[in-house]
Amino acid sequence: MARYNVLVVDDEVKMQRVLEIMLGELGHDVLRASDGAEALDVLGREAVDLVITDLRMPRLDGLGLIRELDARHALPPTIVVTAHGTVESAVEAMKLGALDYILRPFEIETVELAVTRALDIGRVQRENRFLRDELADGWEEFVGQSAPMQTLYQVIASVAPSTLPLLVVGETGTGKELVAHAVHKASGRTGLFVAINCAAIPESILESELFGHVRGAFTGASGERIGKFEASDRGTLFLDEITEMPAVLQARLLRVLQECYIERVGSNRRIDLDLRIIAATNRDPREAIAAGQLREDLYYRLEGVRIDVPPLRQRGEDIGLLARHFLARHAQRLARPVPALTSAALTALARHAWPGNVRELDNLMGRVVLLAAVTPAEDLVLRELGLVTAPAATPPPPGGAAPTAAAIAGDDESLSLQAHTDALERRMIETALARAEDNKARAARLLDISERTLWYKLKKLGLR
């Protein structure tokens, strides 16, 4: 179980201690405050994943605390503790933004269930915020005026208002998740946009990630947990790399699409949902069906509407716009000047085949900004695209000694920009993970990137 910071707010020291022991047994770190005013001080200096607060306290009570945090747009997932006679106040707290309430006296199982549910919801909300930060407002992040992109914009606008399942098809790095997020933004659905990469999660836990589970459903299931389906109720669930989903789960997904309800792992209780499912693949669906990686009946169910995302090589007139956009974004994040691209660099970018598509261009522009102080943008672009090579070693002067192997190796290393960039990323990621005690969400916040991007870099650098 992941370890979280939980703030307990109660004017009774005994109750603080009881909750501290219970939460400690669940593996969480506990902070304490005696009332809402003290809680605001704690929240001002500590990162808190969950607040458990009493309602009746001196100075600033539980409702006042929630109102103040909501006004600051800084309300973390919150559970209120209440006696039977003040349930109405607990309901009012939930209207203000609290996620749940616990009746006193309570059992440890009650606390565990409420805490697990609130932390799960909070985790999904954080992932959604990371996604919003990375994708801005969905439509605003689209950069491109080419004919293929104009067609894509029209398709998104036309299919967004419906609830039909969508299948987004495109090569790796073309922006399939960005398309799915734009559809969600334009749909007007009030729930969350929840994304899951079917290829990034081991088969043994993917079912629980999707459907959730109840306590005791399998070894290690010490509490109840909501899955991605429930988290995206009234919103949109994005299933990336759908062809990597195991066949048995594809069958269950087909049933969800047909019946619009789920059952958690280990439970037979029906949970009705209002879902909009968008799936994506970087493979030809017909080839995946022939290879046994995609059920044909699921394909027909998902392909209510198919959206094809054009590869970057078909968007030549957009490449310059995208390059400048990524330069400006990386420069802002790194607090660096925006490097200028010469006509030679722009010509080289336009002629490149871009096997990694928009993601490849984005990463290249990030390296240009990072190394602009030591390497001109044009030189770096040409070298990265393989259009120039490192200069040969200077021959020794007549009668002089030949350069040593160590000197040659040193010169080669100094010109290996990719190696230096990877080494710098590795050190920064390792430092962030150490400071965050291996909590990926916190490490991503320290690095100012999305958690999804962090997982991608961990895999790329072999740090998983």
Describe the structure.
By secondary structure, this protein is an alpha/beta fold. It has 4 domains: 5-123, Response regulator (Rossmann fold), CATH 3.40.50; 136-310, Rossmann fold, CATH 3.40.50.300; 311-389, Helicase, Ruva Protein, domain 3; 402-464, Arc Repressor Mutant, subunit A (Orthogonal Bundle), CATH 1.10.10. Helix content is 50%, strand content 11%. The protein has 20 helices and 12 strands. The protein has helices spanning 13-25, 36-45, 62-71, 87-96, 108-135, 147-159, 176-187, 203-211, 228-231, 247-259, 285-290, 296-302, 319-334, 343-351, 357-371, 377-384, 405-415, 417-435, 440-447, 451-460; strands at residues 5-9, 29-33, 50-54, 78-83, 100-104, 166-169, 193-197, 236-240, 261-262, 271-272, 277-281, 305-308. The strands form 3 sheets. A 5-stranded parallel β-sheet has the order 2-1-3-4-5, sandwiched between helices. It has a 5-stranded parallel β-sheet with strand order 7-8-11-6-12. A two-stranded antiparallel ribbon has the order 9-10. α13 (319-334) crosses α15 (357-371). The longest helix has 28 residues, at 108-135. The protein is globular. The model is unreliable at 130-139 and 390-413 (pLDDT under 50).
